[in-house]
Write a structure and sequence with these properties.
It is built from 6 helices and 33 strands. The protein is globular, with a radius of gyration of 21 Å.
C-alpha cells in the first residue's frame, strides 16, 4: 500500500482533533449517577505514513463525565519531534516499529531512535501533568487542562537519556510506589528497573542482564518482585542497526530457547533467572504472591509469528492466532514455572480492579477478539473458576481495552466497566458503560463519540466530592499508570 492511500478500515483513517460538549441525543441509555470523572485514552491516530499499526502518531482523548451529568470530549495529538518533522511530508522521515524511511539502508541507519517516538501507547498521571508513554523512548508531558504538549519528560533529569521508560508502569496502592522498566540494548542486553517513590523521585534499582535482545512489552509487579517474562522473540540487532530492516522485520521466533523468567526484587538486591516453555505475550494482568509462589495472569499466544502478520497488515488483517487468558505459577525456590489456561476465549487487554494491584483478586476484564477478524465483545472472567460473563457485539464492532471504574464507597469489583468500541454502522466510536457485575445485560449507556481512531490503553480518574478530578486540581505527587486509580479502603473489609 502506498503512503497516503485511504485505509481499507476507516478506523485507520487520520483522526481529527475535537473539543466538543455532547448533547442528550449523543447518549443512549442512562449514565450511572455516581460515575463521575475523566477517562484518558491513548493510541495511534495518524496513519498517513505508517506501515505498521504501532507507528501512527499518538493522540490523547479525554472524556469528562461531570457531576451535573454533562459530558465533554477533547482530543489532541501529542506534538512530538516525529510529528513536527513529518507534518507536510508525503513519505516517512523517521523510523518506527515497522516503518522504514525511503532511500535505503543508509537513510535508516542514521535515523535517531528518539525522533521515532510516536507517544502512542498509553498514558499516566505524574503530579500535575499527564505523560504519554511509548516503550522505546521518553514520555511526553501534556497539560491536562487542554492536552497541549509541553515536551519530552525525563523526571527532572533522573531518567537516563539512553534508556527508555516503557509503556506499562505498575503502581502499588499499598506503598504508593510505581515501578517500570526499559531495555538497554548494549553489548550485553539489560533490563533496567525503575522505581518512582511517593515524592516523585525516580531511581534505577537494578540492571539485569538477559540473553539475546528480546522484545518485551509488559511486566508484572508483586509485593516482592518485578517479574519479567521474556519470550524467545528476539530482535536481530545487526539488520536493524544497519538500516536493512525495521524492528518488526528483525524479530525472529526461537522456541528452542524457551521463555526466560526474570525475577528482580523491588529493592534491586536480588535477581533470579531461569527458563520455562516458550510462549509470547503482549499484556499481563494481575500478579501476586501466594504460598511461596508468584502468580501471574497474562494473555498467551503460542508464538510471535502468530501475531506479527496481522499487526503489520493492520489495514486488512488476515488470519492470526487468538490469545487466551492463562495463569502461571512461578516457584522462585525451585526455579520452575507452570502455566494453565483460565479460559479458551480469544481475548486481549486484561484489566482488573487496580485497588487490588499486587493482591489476590477475582475478576479480569478483557476485550474479546476471536482471532484478528470477526466479531468481538466485552468480557469479565473469574480467574479462580474460569466463569465468563460476556456481552457479544454485532459483527464488525471492535472493542478496546475495558477499564474498570470503581463505584465510590463500593467494595472491590463493584462499579462499572467502560470500553470504547468501533461502530461500523456509524463509522465512529461508541463509549459503552457496563455494570461490572452484569456485563451480559449489555451497556447501561452508550456515549456516541466521533471517529476517534484506534486506542490502545487508558486510565480512569474519578471526581472528588466537589466534582474536581486530578486533571483539574493537580492531583498528587505520585504517578498513576494506565487504568489505575488512587487506593481507597474496601468498604466491606476495611482493607487496602
Amino acid at each position: 500500500m502506498m503512503f497516503g492511500d485511504p485505509a481499507v478500515d476507516p478506523r485507520f483513517n487520520t483522526a481529527v482533533e475535537y473539543d466538543i460538549t455532547l448533547t442528550p441525543e449523543d447518549i443512549d441509555g442512562v449514565i450511572p449517577e455516581d460515575l463521575c470523572g475523566v477517562i484518558f485514552r491513548n493510541g495511534p491516530a495518524d496513519f498517513r505514513l505508517a506501515e505498521h499499526e504501532f507507528d501512527g502518531d499518538g493522540m490523547i482523548r479525554r472524556l469528562n463525565i461531570a457531576v451535573d451529568g454533562s459530558v465533554a470530549f477533547l482530543s489532541r495529538y501529542a506534538e512530538t519531534a516525529k510529528r513536527r518533522i513529518e507534518a507536510d511530508s508525503p513519505t516517512p522521515k523517521v523510523r518506527g516499529f515497522g516503518t522504514q524511511i525511503p532511500g535505503g539502508p543508509l537513510h535508516n541507519m542514521s535515523a535517531a531512535r528518539e525522533r521515532g517516538n510516536a507517544a502512542n501507547t498509553s498514558v499516566m498521571r505524574h503530579g500535575d501533568c499527564i505523560l504519554t508513554l511509548w516503550e522505546a523512548g521518553k514520555p511526553y508531558q501534556l497539560n491536562p487542562s487542554d492536552l497541549s504538549t509541553i515536551g519530552p519528560y525525563d523526571f527532572e533529569g533522573q531518567l537516563d537519556a539512553k534508556i527508555p521508560f516503557s509503556a506499562h508502569p505498575k503502581f502499588d496502592p499499598t506503598t504508593n510506589e510505581l515501578f517500570n522498566f526499559g531495555i538497554d540494548y548494549g553489548k550485553t542486553t539489560q533490563i533496567v528497573t525503575f522505581r518512582l517513590d511517593r515524592t516523585g523521585k525516580l531511581t534505577t534499582v537494578a540492571r539485569t542482564p538477559v540473553a539475546h535482545a528480546p522484545f518485551v512489552h509488559d511486566f508484572a509487579l508483586t509485593s516482592k518482585w518485578c517479574v519479567y517474562l521474556v519470550g524467545p522473540a528476539d530482535i536481530s540487532l545487526l539488520p536493524f542497526l544497519t538500516g536493512l530492516k525495521s524492528v518488526n522485520d528483525s524479530i525472529k521466533w526461537h522456541p528452542e530457547r524457551g521463555t526466560q523468567i526474570v525475577l528482580v526484587s523491588r529493592d534491586g538486591s536480588r535477581s533470579l533467572t531461569f527458563d520455562a516453555d516458550p510462549w509470547f505475550q503482549f499484556h499481563i494482568g494481575g500478579a501476586f504472591k501466594r504460598d511461596g509462589e508468584v502468580i501471574v495472569d497474562l494473555v498467551r499466544f503460542e508464538s510471535w509469528d502468530s501475531v506479527a502478520g496481522p499487526l503489520k497488515d493492520f489495514r486488512n488483517p488476515i488470519g492470526g492466532q487468538e490469545g487466551n487468558l492463562w495463569r502461571y505459577r512461578i516457584d522462585p525456590n525451585k526455579k520452575v514455572a507452570a502455566g494453565e489456561p483460565i479460559s479458551d476465549l480469544g481475548v486481549e487487554f486484561p484489566q482488573f480492579d487496580q485497588r487490588l494491584a499486587t493482591q489476590d483478586y477475582t475478576y479480569s476484564y478483557l476485550a474479546q477478539h476471536p482471532g484478528w477478524i470477526g466479531t468481538g465483545g466485552v468480557v469479565r472472567i473469574d480467574v479462580r473458576s474460569g466463569r465468563v460473563d460476556a456481552f457479544n457485539l454485532p459483527a464488525g464492532f471492535r472493542p478496546s481495552e475495558p477499564l474498570f471504574c470503581p463505584r465510590p464507597g463500593g467494595t472491590f469489583d463493584e462499579g462499572w466497566v467502560m470500553s470504547w468500541v468501533w461502530n461500523p454502522d456509524r463509522r465512529a466510536t461508541d463509549a459503552l458503560i457496563f455494570d461490572a457485575e452484569h456485563i451480559c445485560d449489555g451497556p447501561l449507556a452508550t456515549i456516541k463519540l466521533p471517529n476517534v481512531g484506534v486506542t490502545f490503553h487508558g486510565m480512569w480518574e474519578p471526581s472528588g466530592p466537589t466534582g474536581d478530578t486530578p486533571a483539574d486540581s493537580g492531583g498528587g505527587a505520585v504517578a498513576r499508570p494506565p487504568g489505575e486509580v488512587p487506593a481507597t479502603p474496601n468498604s466491606a473489609t476495611g482493607q487496602m
